[in-house]
Amino acid sequence: MDASPNVERMVRLGLTTYEARAYVALVRRDSFTAAQVSRQAGLPRQRIYDVLGSLVQKGLASSRPGHVVKYAAVSPEQAIARLVASRRSELRDLEHDAAELVARLTPEYVSGQAHTDPLEYIEVLRDRGAINERFEEIQANVQKEILVFTKPPYATPPQENPVGIEVTRTHSARSVYEMSILEDPATAAGVRRFIEAGEEARFADHVPLKLVIIDEAIVMFGMVDPVAGAGAANDLTMMVVEHPALASTLKLAFDAVWDSGLTFDQATALTAKRLRQTA
Q1: Region label for 266, one of left (φ > 0), alpha (ψ between -120 and 50) or beta (otherwise)
Q2: Terminal C-alpha separation, the chain
Q3: Which fold has domain 1-115?
Q4: How far is the CA of 190 from the CAs of 135, 156, 203, 207, 255, in angstroms?
Q5: 3-state secondary structure (DSSP) of residue 63
Q6: What's this model's pTM, rounded to 2 decimal places?
Q7: How many C-beta atoms surround the C-beta of residue 139 within 10 A?
């Protein structure tokens, strides 16, 4: 914007910067040609006729016909009064539109507030990227406790879950892993890092489902298509449910599996024995 305070004020009243600079130049003499206004105001020659024509249309300048058309400014008192009147008219129109919009939208808002989705606390995720993102978000918002059933397929393998490691260091964390997780050295090493960070771990030959329980309030669990069955084992469908009663019930199931699980050392020894027997 031009540095001139007069130009800045006229712009605030509704003129463009070019129009304001042209008007401020016009008031300095009885009349100017377009070329003179262009030089005085520092405006591009190719734009000056459009700018002056706009000032005339808005009632801030007049044109004087002749061999060379000249332009004269309307008195500042009249010009500013017209600009203020125009802004007031725009404000009245805006207030009218706003009131009409409020009247139209309020019934829809009231109706929307009365409508609730009985299943809005349930979220279904099928995209692997979305599952990973939601899982990280849930982990990051743990307040006290996180309980996990871990089994393949893994949306986020233990060795690729640094957020989980940080949560484990600062919160109560217990996990029950399916024994098969120890057959892969990289994944087994990832589990060991979790345990070293403070996680309590148990291992079972079979974990009923992929499950995360947060603060006895939120659960995230995997669902297998009962029709497709084992053939869809690699397809991840996860549900997130914010329901304390469900979380408390699933925690009872978690504790039952936990109580019968093996420690890391016991599970590692048993896995090694089984691998030797099948070698």
Answers
A1: alpha
A2: 81
A3: Arc Repressor Mutant, subunit A (1.10.10)
A4: 17, 11, 14, 19, 23
A5: strand
A6: 0.56
A7: 23
By C-alpha distance, which of 13, 19, 14 is closest to 2? 19
Q: Where are the domains of the chain?
A: 1-115, 122-278
Contact 35, 45 (CB under 8 A): yes
CA distance 262 to 130: 32
Q: Which of 208, 157, 199 is nearest to 178 (CA)?
A: 208
Which neighbouring-strand residues pair with 214?
A: 146, 218
Residue 1 DSSP class: -
Q: Which of 84, 6, 60, 72 shows the shortest CA–CA distance to 34?
A: 72
Q: Confidence band (pLDDT; 50, 70, 90) for 130?
A: confident
How far apart (Å, rounded) are the C-alpha atoms in residues 170 and 15? 60
- CA dist 224 and 210 (Å) reads 10
**At what angle are helices 34-41 and 45-57 packed, to 10 degrees?**
100
In words, the CATH class of domain 122-278 is alpha beta
62-102 confidence digits (pLDDT tens): 999 888 999 999 999 999 999 999 999 999 999 999 999 99
